[in-house]
Specification:
It contains 3 helices and 4 strands, in the order E-H-E-E-H-E-H. By secondary structure, the chain is an alpha+beta fold. It is elongated.
């Protein structure tokens, strides 16, 4: 397979926001799919304070070729000032699934 598949992860303030943005990214074919998790507990420093909040985590599958557009679009849609957007290259996976991701992120 020539196209590299990546897993992008982001957190959102709630499931409704996560689902709305995920739907936009999948509809635009920038992401093949999005898996929305149950709330996760996040603990982090922000603006000099220790924060603790429940967030919704989303796992997006996209291609390396579409990742820049994915990240740019997600950042423009995201409600956080500095959203978590991290990307992991997949070393391996079921070839048929990886091919499906590639086809799903194709503009045509």
């Amino acid at each position: 397979m020539a196209t590299r598949i990546v897993l992008a992860i982001s957190t959102f303030p709630d499931a409704e926001t996560a689902a709305g943005i995920a739907e936009q990214l999948v509809t635009a074919r920038i992401a093949a799919c999005a898996n929305i998790t149950a709330p996760v507990r996040s603990i982090y420093h922000w603006e000099g304070k220790l924060e603790k909040s429940d967030e919704t985590m989303v796992f997006f599958k996209t291609t390396e070729e579409r990742y820049e557009e994915f990240a740019r679009t997600l950042r423009s849609l995201h409600p956080y000032e500095v959203p978590e957007i991290v990307c992991l290259q997949l070393a391996d996976g079921l070839p048929e699934y990886l091919q499906w991701v590639e086809r799903s992120c194709s503009p045509f």
